What we know:
alpha+beta; four-stranded antiparallel sheet; 2 domains; about 40% strand; 10 strands; Immunoglobulin-like
Amino acid sequence: xxxxxxxxxxxxKKLYYFRMKVxxxxxxxxxxxxxxxxxxxxPTSYMPEPPIPQTGRVxxxxxxxxxxxxxxxxxxxxxxxxxxxxxxxxxxxxxxxLHNLIDTDAGQxxxxxxxxxxxxxxxxxxxxxxxxxxxxxxxxxxxxxxxxIYVNSDGLYTVMPG
Length: 162
């Protein structure tokens, strides 16, 4: 009987040490998970940097069946605003490229993020009313690479990269 209680004591001690080892390992794993999960670093995969707008040109393509006049355009960069009145004719199938009004040395290149607002009207008029253009429209684009404004036959427009 004394031998049985001796072996029982040894088994209980082994079981106690095994449970303690398991608890220590689990506590270490939990600490590691908490340390990694609660770190103060911003994960780059979740917070990508916003893209930087690219410099570019702005063009107008007359994709309509009537000639169009570019009345003018306005360039805005922050609080700086420049505008020009043009009244340039663009015949069907022709393009017109705008020029940078703020940085005149840049020629046709606008800074990324600049806003350009273009005003255009058709040369054709509403039948029976020679003082009302068939269409007139205002287009505002934000520069991010080269942009082309396509004027369609109904006077509406489409802005595409290019």
